[in-house]
Design a protein that fits this description.
It is found in: Cell membrane. Keywords: Cell membrane, Membrane, Transmembrane, Transmembrane helix. It comes from Promicromonospora citrea. One of its GO terms (cellular component) is plasma membrane. It is a multi-pass membrane protein. The protein is mainly α. The protein has one domain: MFS general substrate transporter like domains (Growth Hormone, Chain: A, Up-down Bundle), CATH 1.20.1250.20. The protein is 78% helix and 0% strand. Helix 6 runs antiparallel to helix 15.
Amino acid sequence: MTAPGHHPAPWQPGAVRDAAGGLLALGLATFVAITTELVPVGLLPVISADLSVAESTAGLLVTAYAVMVAVLAVPLTTATRRLPRKAVLLGSLTVYTLSNVLVALAPTFAVVAVARALGGASHAVFFSVSIGYASRLVRPHLAGRALALVTLGASAGFVLGVPLSTSLGTAVGWRTAFVVLAGACALSGVLTALLLPPVPGGGAPPDDGARGARRSALAGATSANALVYLGHYTVYTYVSVLLLGAGLAAVAVGPALLVIGGLGLLGAAYAAARLDARLRQTTVVTLVVVGGGVLALGVAYPGTVGTLVAAAVWSIGFGAVAAVFQTAAIRTRGASPDVVGALVNASANIGIGGGAALGALVLDGAGRGAVPYAGAVLVGAALLVVLLARRAFPGVRDEAQGRPHA
């Protein structure tokens, strides 16, 4: 029992094994957060039909959510910087729960959009804080593995969350899917309260002659991050529409997303094994696989088998994306961990919201078959940024010469 007037010793960063409980809690919370963000993706056809709006309009549920994150990530992270990090995470999980309940009960599309915007505000804080949180649980040279393990929760959101909610929503109604998700968010909050150790905030970058270079490197990492998400969500927001257009029955979309998403765990595992040793190589390989898969999807569509195979390759690559760019950004030391997390969060959601909107324009204009090509061009642009920004994505030789921090 702690003596009166004394506080528990602050958390000391150590090995990944020492932080296993905290990383598990963050991974579970990330799972429900990603599922909350993306659950409309698999349910766009049934939501649009039930609320009498076009599929492209229903896709704006992803856009509205992402816009809130992009606009609020930095301001809310800054505003809450003096609050205990764990309390902020628990508060955000509570708001996720409320948002999903409101969506389930909403009588109109407008109310659904408002409830989703509330979830987006929570998301703005959650991922900004959780990225910095995971990096603080372990010693600095292990940050890549810690972030990759936490982002397994994001992969699980693709693998289990979206496909299962899609299957559930198709079978018994999309509102029921949101009720179940609200329960999962509440449960995650309880587990986070029990398993996650408190960590201090702060952690400003060194104030030395390399400050400008570090900020430039951070800008390169977040710019590439935004482009990858922009390309991915131009296509992924409408993946259920594409799968239906490729000949899948409505009841098969959920299981197909489950299998395709499951392959993303391979990419996440690759990132966990390689990131701390070979950041640049891992990033390039990841983007080549993502871009190649999306391009192949455009070539194969509307053939059923080819579409599914290309989507599988794309999913494998995307499983590594979150960990790759979070690690690159954190390692630039261009800002405090929480501010870095906010910038990564904001840039990703600029891509998510912009991708959903761009995909809608392409879908309504050029048609379904053109959507993957638009996404592939944007992923290719991200790869170009990575190849040019050596400070943000250093190779082994650059690391030895100290370039990432110079």
